[in-house]
């Protein structure tokens, strides 16, 4: 990891003096990525406070080196930080581009496949009705079946729209409380999962467009209705890229491709997270269970 290498290069400059490294992809929050704690929260407002601090920038991205005292060679320390910010930003943006491309392709494939299926179904119904091929009892069932097809199509379109608003937001993302939003959506969906707080801070996240509330709603609905997530434990924890939200059963697992066909409606939650600059990961666990993980960009905690 880039910042682990940077910390190893910085250690001789500080000796026994504590130090930590922080990073923000968009420069809006200083997220702890190595060492510490010097500043108390995992995600601090910019600039973070410390007895000694250096910062470096690469486009919108920024990194901070915090220490309890001045290093032996401040210029060398700053050069190490600058190089780490440049390398980490390049690798992170490369990874995000690859993930967004894959998830975007899945979104379009699922959307076009679903709509193609729905159009074929409605076309067959129309042709059958025109040719008087349906018995009276079958005709009586058609309105409900057509309504079900239309409702499913509307859900797919709405999910796609929410992802698109995160990919191309009209305005920058505003901070949303991670835990309060998730708990509200869990209650609304009737999901029984509980989620513990984070010691010492109230996590906030930055998800543009439809926002974290949309992704949390999709996650809560999956926890309420997807048998593979029945009885799943929920965990919110610090992550070098922001905050990690994990749902699922414990135990070993095998990676599961993040696709709509494999995951169902909750896949759109991962699409939103990735569009925001986060990530999504899934694993199949024993007895047919599922474990999913969303990484969300952090706003300064409160």
What does this structure look like?
The chain has 302 residues and is an alpha+beta fold. 47% of the residues lie in helices and 23% in strands. The protein has 7 helices and 13 strands. The strands form 3 sheets. It has a 5-stranded antiparallel sheet. The protein has a 5-stranded antiparallel sheet with strand order 8-9-12-11-10, with helices on one face. Strands 6-7-13 form a 3-stranded antiparallel sheet. The longest helix is centred in the middle third of the chain and has 57 residues, at 74-130. The model has no long low-confidence stretch (mean pLDDT 88).
Secondary-structure blueprint of this entry?
Elements: H1 2-14, E1 19-24, E2 30-35, E3 43-44, E4 52-58, E5 61-67, H2 74-130, H3 136-167, E6 175-177, H4 178-189, E7 204-206, H5 211-225, E8 233-239, E9 242-248, E10 253-256, H6 260-263, H7 267-275, E11 279-285, E12 289-296, E13 298-299
Antiparallel strand pairs: 1-2, 1-5, 2-3, 4-5, 6-7, 7-13, 8-9, 9-12, 10-11, 11-12
Helix pairs in contact: 1-2, 2-3, 2-7, 3-7, 4-5, 5-7
